[in-house]
Amino acid sequence: MNQENGTKSYEINALNKEESWRMFRIMGEFVEGFDKLSGVGPAISIYGSARIDPDNKLYGQTEEIARRLGEMGFSIITGGGPGVMEAANKGAGMAGVTSVGLNIDLPASQACNIYATKPLNFKYFFVRKVMLVKYASAFIIMPGGLGTLDELTEVLNLMQTGKIKPFPVILFDGEYWAGFLNWLCKDVLSRGLVSEKDFDLLRVCDTPDEVIDIVEKWSAKKEITGKKAVCKLRSPASS
Q: What is the pTM of this model?
C-alpha cells in the first residue's frame, strides 16, 4: 500500500495505465535476481517470523541451524528482514558462507538486516518468492505468521504440481504447527482434497540436531527419516 496525494493506493488494484511500464520493472527485478543469485547454490531457504526478538529462544535456535548448515557448505537464503530471518543470516555469517537477504519494500520501511552479505531489494512479492524457492535445496519453516504460511503452502503446492524438484520441507517446533497439521489431516486429507504422497517430504523437527540430520541424509541421497507431518489417515480417493 502506497500513499498518493493523501489517499491510500494499493499496488495490485492500481494496475491501469502504467501496466506496460510496470511489466518492464517486474522483468528488471527478475533479471537482477537471476544475475546476482546464479552462483549461490547449494543453498537452503529459511522462513519465519520477522517479529522474533534476539532474546527469544527461537532466534538462537535459528542462528544455530543456519550456522551448522553453513558449516556443511550450504549458503543460507532468507527474506532479509528482522527476527528469524536476521538470526538465519547471522548464523550463515558465523559459518563464513554466503548469506542472502531478499528484502521486500513495505509501507512501513524495512531495511535488509545487517547480517546479509548478499542483500537484494524487491518491490514485488511474487518476484521475491521465486528467488526464495529457485536456488534452494531444502526449506526450513520456522514459526511465523501469514507470510510464513503463504510461503509454506506455495512450496508444497509447487512440489505437488511438479513445478519444482522435491526437496525436504522441515517444519520446526511441532507444538506450533500441530493445529495446522491436524487440519490438513482431519479436514483436507480426509475429504480427498490432497493425498498422503503430497506430504512425503514434510517433516517436523523440534531440535537443531533433527534438522541437521534430515539435511545430511538428503544431501547424501539417503532416505530421510524423522517425524512425518501428516497422520496415516487414508483419504476417500485412496480407499
A: 0.85
